[in-house]
Design a protein that fits this description.
Strand order of the largest sheet: 2-1-3
Order of helices and strands: HEEHHHHHEHH
CATH topology of the largest domain: Methane Monooxygenase Hydroxylase, Chain G, domain 1
Oligomer: single chain
Largest sheet: 3 strands, antiparallel
CATH architecture of the largest domain: Up-down Bundle
């Protein structure tokens, strides 16, 4: 949802909560056109989007889980690349400190001796933190401003597990006008999962994520 709302972000193509490997689900973005470079604004939007899951957990449930760990790692890596490789920090200037494998930050997390000073290392850390904090604030504002959409997406995903194309657009745009109508009809022959009892679970757009999860837990399996 954060990626959908923010300017300079690739369009949302697919959202699924079907697990794959160690991932409990994923969101796929598809660029509108091929490109060979990215702007600072695009990096900042990508970082905010990567932090969206962490923000949503904290906002809805009041605590965080390990589910967003990969997103946090990606956000931190992008922020560090902005500072150390792409010269996108006013404080440090248009300077590069090497690639990810040369920047003085090897796998063990220790700065490579002699590549740059301890003061510069601290400035890099401060700039990375500033970028992350600003992106987190942007993601938080999107979640707060569009909480109804967040809950609607969660309800639709609990029911159908995967959203893409026109059905994804409907989840973003709003619920069906009739309570009797299926708010997210299947398209292109995609089968809806049947392990959740569908009646009365989705039509209430005011239902929170926590309430939807509780309703699913209490629903009989088919």
């Amino acid at each position: 949802m954060v990626g959908r709302v923010l300017d300079h972000h690739d369009p949302v193509h697919k959202i699924t909560i079907v697990g794959r490997g160690q991932a409990g689900g994923y969101t796929r973005f598809r660029p509108a056109e091929d490109r060979h470079y990215q702007t600072r604004s695009e990096f900042e939007a990508s970082i905010a989007s990567a932090l969206g899951g962490h923000v949503a957990e904290t906002t809805v449930f009041g605590e965080m889980s390990t589910g967003a760990s990969n997103d946090l790692e990606r956000a931190t890596l992008l922020a560090r690349k902005m500072v150390t490789e792409f010269g996108m920090s006013e404080r440090l200037g248009v300077v590069t400190f090497g690639s990810a494998s040369q920047s003085g930050w090897p796998a063990d997390g220790q700065r490579e001796s002699g590549r740059y000073s301890e003061r510069t290392a601290q400035l890099i850390d401060d700039e990375v933190r500033r970028i992350i904090d600003q992106a987190y604030d942007r993601a938080s504002q999107v979640i707060v401003d569009h909480r109804e959409v967040l809950d609607r997406l969660a309800q639709a995903l609990l029911r159908y597990e995967t959203l893409q194309g026109p059905e994804l657009e409907r989840a973003f745009s709003g619920p069906a006008t009739s309570a009797e109508a299926d708010p997210m009809p299947r398209e292109h022959g995609v089968r809806a999962p049947v392990r959740f009892a569908p009646p009365a679970l989705m039509p209430n757009a005011a239902m929170t994520i926590h309430e939807a999860v509780s309703a699913n837990a209490a629903a009989p399996e088919k």
